[in-house]
Amino acid sequence: MRVLAIESSCDDTAAAVLDAGGVRSSIVASQDLVHGPYGGVVPELASRQHVLAILPVIERALAAAAVTLDDIEAVAATYGPGLVGSLLVGLQVAKGIALARGLPFIGVNHLEGHLLAILLDRPVPFPYLGLLVSGGHTSLYLVEGVGAYCMLGRTRDDAAGEAFDKAAKMLGLGYPGGASIDRLAAGGGDPGRVRFPRASLKRGAYDFSFSGVKTALRQYLLDGHSVAVADICASFQEAIIDMLVGPTLKAARALGVATVVVSGGVSANSRLRARMAELGAGAGLEVAFPRFAYCTDNAAMIGYAGRARLLRGETHDLTLNAEATLPIGVADAPVVGRPA
How far apart are CA 134 and CA 215, in angstroms? Predict the structure, then answer.
């Protein structure tokens, strides 16, 4: 089955074509230059840019795959979670193509796309532990198969990527902030120069919290310390990564899984990759990351999840609507080793 997939949940407009041979094309149009002056995504600007970019991106994806709409057998699109105005652009275009062509349509949860993105490159046996860490989400899941997810923990406040972006804005760095902090830290920053606090949660052993370290950075800057920006970046980044790695390795030990998959935009962070690989290996775990192109938002991961569901006979009615908050997994499902 050859599938056209569309993703527009936030500020990247993406389209991809997938078939039995894998990813035939994957095109992403970034809006970084549009939102950069504001230090973050402006929802109204994002949706307007999607309107401008969506058809050219689809045309590029079809051309790169050397196919036309006549060769497409089904359509998949993200329907949540995300910015409603952004979601509606991609979703409505996808439903329009499906209606006009008489094709099966499937809506895909953006989080499911990230959790399965590793499978675009390599087989990973189920079950595995999935750490999804991005600008809008930071959660930990037991992934037992396509459509079978149990949420073990999540952030109580900011997502890790959001904390990076806000920290970069405080430091006067560019957007997206995570990439700027990673680059400066990797360029000689000392991660031990400033000791930022690590959240220790009494309840929810697999939950995360990043508001405290963000507040600590703000206070540190207000106090006027004369420390190199690269050292501050490296120290702040180290605190975030410590708080990501700790609960993840704890959950892996408790559940007895052999593989940890880290996905989402922050999984492109070089220090997170190094620390998670090093500490995971020390714990006897295999740690896997999608390739960089599949870490950030893309339509290939939406196509993979959508195609897997279509192949087992699942479809959505064309009345499917966008959902800003769309959960995945059952937070209170019984899982062996899950803390009370």
Answer: 20
Confidence (pLDDT) at 174: 81
Distance CA 18, CA 307 (A): 8
Same domain (yes/no): 302, 283:
no
| 171 Cβ neighbours under 8 A, 6+ residues apart | 181, 221, 229, 232, 233
Encode pLDDT of 134-178 as tens digits: 988 999 999 999 999 999 999 999 999 999 999 999 999 988 889
- Rounded to the nearest angstrom, the gap between the alpha carbon of residue 244 and the centroid of all alpha carbons in its chain is 14
| CATH number of the domain where residue 198 is located | 3.30.420.40
- For residue 100, what are the domain limits? 3-115+295-311
Q: Could you give the strand order of the β-sheet that contains 138-145, starting from the edge strand earlier in sequence?
A: 148-154, 138-145, 128-133, 259-263, 286-288
Query: Domain check: are 135 and 224 in the same one?
Result: yes
Contact 181, 240 (CB under 8 A): no
CA 277 from centre of chain: 19
Backbone dihedral angles phi then psi of residue 314, each to the nearest 5 degrees? -85, 140
Binned at pLDDT 50, 70 and 90, residue 127 comes out as very high
Tokens for 235, please give them. 């120290």
* DSSP assignment letter at 258: S
Same domain, 108 and 156: no
Does an H or E element contain 296, and which?
none
> Does residue 329 register a pLDDT over 80?
no
Token code pair at residue 161: 């990527």
